Amino acid sequence: QTVTALSDSCFYNCDTLIAIHLPSTITYIGSDAFAYCDSLRGIELSESLVNLSNRAFYNCYNLESVCIPASLRNVGNDIFTGCDNLFCLFYSGSLDSWKALNFYSIPTGTVLSCTDGLFSLN
């Protein structure tokens, strides 16, 4: 079977998860999927991802970097709330495409790396 979605809270509070690379078939990540994963430091999201639901990385205190695909179309609320160590978001699209996604609650000092260059998000 092909996995296309991660359900709500599927890795919730998984304190042993350090890094994860999702398969290219994932198009949907549910609410709180990685919330409170205190050891998570980095994640590379699927190049097919379309939907990233509410609080996907809520309070992942040690999360440092996330690779976000240009395929992303829907972004929930509080995706990065409590991710105080997040320093870089790698986005495979342009700055204008990034702005259209309307990410909220990105920690102060986070840098966006996209096809247009590097940008401070705060």
Q: Can you put this structure into words, describing what you see?
A:
Helices cover 6% and strands 25% of the residues. The protein has one helix and ten strands. It has a six-stranded mixed beta sheet with strand order 2-4-6-8-9-10, with no helix packed on it. A four-stranded parallel beta sheet has the order 1-3-5-7, with no helix packed on it. The longest helix is centred in the C-terminal third of the chain and has 7 residues, at 95-101. It is globular.
Give the strand order, joined by hyphens, for the main sheet: 2-4-6-8-9-10
Quickly give the structural class.
mainly beta
Spatial gap, N to C terminus: 42 Å
The low-confidence parts are none
Strand content: 15-25%
Q: Estimate the global geometry from the Cα principal axes.
A: globular
Largest sheet: 6 strands, mixed
Radius of gyration: 13 Å
Mean pLDDT: 95
Number of alpha- plus pi-helical segments: 1
What percent of the residues sit in helical stretches (DSSP H or I)?
Answer: under 10%
Order of helices and strands: EEEEEEEEHEE
Give the beta-strand count: 10
Write the SSE topology.
Layout: E1 5-6, E2 19-21, E3 28-29, E4 42-44, E5 51-52, E6 65-68, E7 74-75, E8 88-91, H1 95-101, E9 111-114, E10 117-120
Parallel strand pairs: 1-3, 2-4, 3-5, 4-6, 5-7, 6-8, 8-9
Antiparallel strand pairs: 9-10
